[in-house]
Amino acid sequence: MPITKQKRTLQSRKASNTRYRILEGVLDCLVEVGYANTSISTIAVRAGVSRGAMQFHFPTKRSAMEAAITHLMQRRLDTYRADMAKIPASESFLDHAIRAYWKQVTRPEFIALQELTLASRTDTGLARQLSRAFREFVIQSRAPFLEEFPQWRQRKKQYNNAANLAQYVVEGMAWGYLNGHLNDAAVNDLLATTRETVLSLLEDATPKKSKRVAVSAKPSRATTGR
Question: Which is nearest to 87 in space by CA: 147, 3, 10?
Fold first, then answer.
């Protein structure tokens, strides 16, 4: 490889690594100090980069936040896909999916998402970026269900109702759990109720036989560290 090309490759890798560290720093700041207290300076300190390097990649807080939204949603999607790729023989697909999503919303990434969501209420630009990224996350995260149960494609309304109910009930539960208003026992009861409700909405589309046995989901408490 010519020296000049090799140099450009090394510089590109370094820039990519710096950008990644900054985006991780944004998420850490959102979790630890919140959106309002996050600035270019606090992000640079948390990411371990100079203010000049920070502003080279992201001149403004807005630009850093918009890039962090995409980074955050991809991170959530990768985690969920990894969880869905490891379904124990003792669990049904639906039980595991609900448990995996519960794990999602008790992770630090969900706290960062809530900070961005609250900030976007009065920031139309941030709201647009968040809306686009969230729609893509929903499409991609629900794809495994339609692959596992293709018959649900013929019952789109019931499927969407069931998927929306499960997602937004679980996300609402996370607010109560992370703020100490729901305990583990209440969470387990609500997850079981959510499962039964989803099954009732999809009763005609759910396979009559399954090789897996349903088990109760166990919640996990979030931490702010990585």
Answer: 147
